[in-house]
Structure formats: C-alpha cells, structure tokens
Design goal:
Keywords: Hydrolase, Metal-binding, Zinc. By secondary structure, the protein is of the alpha/beta class. It is built from 7 helices and 14 strands. The structure holds zinc ion.
C-alpha cells in the first residue's frame, strides 16, 4: 500500500501544554453568562492533524464564548508528540486506541495504559459537557462524514444537529465498536431522552489539505449551533463551498466487520463510500471467512485498508443510504 501524501503540517502545539484547568492541553473559557457547556476535542488519534490545525488556530485567534463555557482539549498528546511526516501512519496511538476506552468498565478499572490515563484526566470535562465535537480524519481518501453515534442510542439528536450545521455531506448512524466505548457514546450522549449531544466529524483523509478546511468549518458552525459564538463572529470563517445544507445524505450502518484474523484482506483497494450493487458480492476475507454484501447497494464505510490495526479492530462498516 503506497503512502498517502502529507499535505498538512502538524502545528507545534506545545505552547498550549499548560492549559488553564490543571490538566495539560485542556483550556476552558467561561463567558460568565448562562449557557451550555461545550467541548471540542482534537487529536483523539495522534496522526489526525487537521483537528490540531483547527484548534491551534482557534486558540490563537482568542475566540471566547459569548454564552456558557467552552472547553478545548487536545486528546492523545503523547501520540501526537510522536508525529513523523516520514512515517505518518505510526502514531495513531501509543498503547491503545484512545477512542475505545470511555466506558466506566475501563476508566474505573485498575487497567492502565497511556490512553486510559489520558482519558481519566479528560473524562470530567466530557461528563460536564452538554455538547461535544470530536474532530477526526480517516486513513483512506474518503469524503468527509459525521459519525452520529449508534442507532437508537442518541444518534437521532446528533443527526439533527449535523443537519442544522449543514456539514459534512454524509451523516452516519453506526453500530459502535465492540473493542470499546467511544467518547461520543459516553453517558447521556447515548440516551435519546437527554438533550446532551456529541458528534464526531471525520474530515477526510488524515493529511489532505481539505481535512483542515473541513475541521475549521465544522468547528465554527458547531459553535454557532450551540450558541457559543454568534453567527456574525463565526461566519467570516465558514467555507461556503463545504455547505451541504439540504443536500446531506444519511447512511445507516447495520454491521461492523471486526478482524477475527491477522490475515484480513479486502478483495479490492476500497477507499470508502463505494456502493456494492449486489447482495452476496465479496468484500473481504476475514481469515477463512468470506465477508459479503448483506444486501443490494451495500455502502462501505471507512475500510481499514492499511491503518494500524489488530484483532478486534473494526475493519469496515456496512450500511445503507436511508434518505437524501
Ligand atoms: Zn480518528
């Protein structure tokens, strides 16, 4: 698999290391006025630098919330510190995926890892937040998409929020990851009856220039939707070419294919959002087991063609277009 071109430059975020919350790389700003508690996180995965670019810019601009509180965090700072543009696939995490450790079964256990310890530092901010935006990108060159959480477990409110924001083009209901709970699924975010809402934007391929534009655009539109920034302040930074208002498409993932073997091979170099026309068509070999399209017009979501993976990793999600 040939290496994707690195078009983005990872900013030096060490100037934000001190934070102002007692936790490194976490900044919180209080407007002093009533309003929601809003959190934005970048670099949950160490090599997804678009979020670092957007958040670094945002902090440098000195934006402050007009209502409520705003928390800005850099997630997996230890992995980010290992960024090497010559080996950009090697620092997704240090010990384990930071976005699979957000269940109390992990955080309140005696397990430990670089990522579990970082999540223990961050979790109080997550638990205080009414609205969360978690900024990611993808290994394969794939159109940006919003991961709205799990069907029946809070994804509807995340889809509604994403439609108000109008970005990106694809919104996704999914099935979660057997390997562990994501930040956007923690606590009330997964409760359809709670107004607390968390969204996870996949801004495009990790190192493509577009990903930084999508990250920044989504960040500013999210902060307007939550009332944190006024439209007048944020709108000059919107990217009009990225506006998909009224044209967004919703994918419902029905199953996640998890690696049961280290000998997992896709039948083609898929990149994501391919539509497999016929039920039963081959998609991959999971060791000895064939993975085939479960229905006509199966959409492939985020195939892990060449990222850092292990047994239990979600290798691809399979879904259907449900509207749009
Ligand atoms: Zn990610």
């Amino acid at each position: 698999m040939k290496q994707k071109k690195v078009e983005l430059q990872a900013p030096d975020i060490s100037r934000w290391a001190a934070g102002n919350t007692g936790v490194p790389y976490v900044w919180q700003f209080d407007s002093g006025k009533p309003g929601p508690n809003v959190m934005v996180q970048a670099v949950t995965h160490g090599n997804e630098i678009c979020g670092a670019i957007a958040v670094d810019w945002f902090l440098e601009q000195g934006f402050k919330p007009e209502k409520g509180k705003l928390t800005i965090s850099f997630g997996n700072i230890a992995a980010y510190a290992r960024w090497d543009p010559e080996k950009p696939s090697t620092n997704r995490y240090v010990d384990q995926d930071l976005n699979r450790v957000w269940g109390d079964d992990v955080l309140k256990s005696d397990k430990t890892s670089v990522e579990i310890e970082r999540a223990r530092e961050l979790v109080r901010f997550v638990d205080e937040a009414d609205f969360v935006l978690d900024i990611h990108s993808m290994h394969e060159p794939c159109a940006p998409l919003m991961v709205c959480g799990t069907t029946g477990r809070g994804a509807d409110k995340a889809v509604q929020m994403s439609k108000r924001i109008g970005v990106p083009q694809y919104l996704m209901y999914d099935t979660g990851h057997p390997a562990g709970l994501r930040m956007i699924e923690r606590g009330e975010f997964a409760d359809p009856d709670s107004p607390r809402t968390a969204i996870l934007v996949e801004c495009g391929q990790h190192w493509e220039k577009l990903a930084a534009d999508v990250a920044l655009d989504t960040l500013m539109k999210f902060l307007v939707d939550t009332g944190t920034l006024s439209r007048e302040v944020a709108e000059p930074h919107f990217k009009s070419e990225l506006d998909y208002s009224g044209r967004q498409r919703v994918i419902e993932v029905t199953q996640a294919v998890v690696a049961k073997s280290l000998d997992f091979k896709f039948v083609e170099d898929f990149t994501g959002l391919e539509v497999i026309e016929k039920q039963g068509s081959p998609i991959a070999m999971n060791g000895e087991e064939a993975v085939t399209a479960p229905y006509d017009k199966t959409v492939l979501v985020m195939p892990a063609v060449s990222k850092q993976w292990t047994l239990g990793t979600t290798m691809v999600r399979l879904g259907k277009l449900i509207e749009g």
